[in-house]
Amino acid sequence: MSYNNHKRQALEESRPIGHRMSHLRSCTVHISQRHEVHRDLVIEKVLELTGLDLYSHLTNEELHIATRCLDIIREEWPGPDRLSDLEKFD
Fold it and tell me: Within a domain: residue 36?
């Protein structure tokens, strides 16, 4: 599956949260391969920027925030230095 397919599955509200989180973490694999970094670095960057732990179940709103963050760092690793910089990409 591609990054976008995993992202779509992660955002599908009718699916169980555990399933959605698995797809969200699969997005981190695509990012890590694209930028040749370890997946854990991508997950840590999301935690640093948003305070959201991708190993925990997130609310729907938190999942959308994490997805937006992943979209940004997917385009440019390592992404912004702080959460307020995410607004520059909207």
Answer: yes
Among candidates 56, 5, 60, 65, which has minimal Cα distance to 30? 5
In a domain, 11, yes or no: yes
Q: Does 90 fall in a domain?
A: no
Give me the domain span that covers residue 53. Answer: 3-82
- Which among 63, 56, 52, 89 is positioned nearest to 74, based on CA atoms? 89
Instruction: Specify whether the CB–CB gap between 6 and 23 falls below 8 A.
Output: yes
**Residue 76 belongs to some domain of the structure:** yes
Residue 84 predicted with pLDDT over 80: no
DSSP string across 47-68:
HHHH---TTS---HHHHHHHHH
Average pLDDT over residues 22-49: 95
Report the C-alpha dihedral over residues 52, 53, 56, 59, rounded to 10 degrees.
10
pLDDT level of residue 76 (50, 70, 90 thresholds): confident
What's the domain count of the chain? Answer: 1
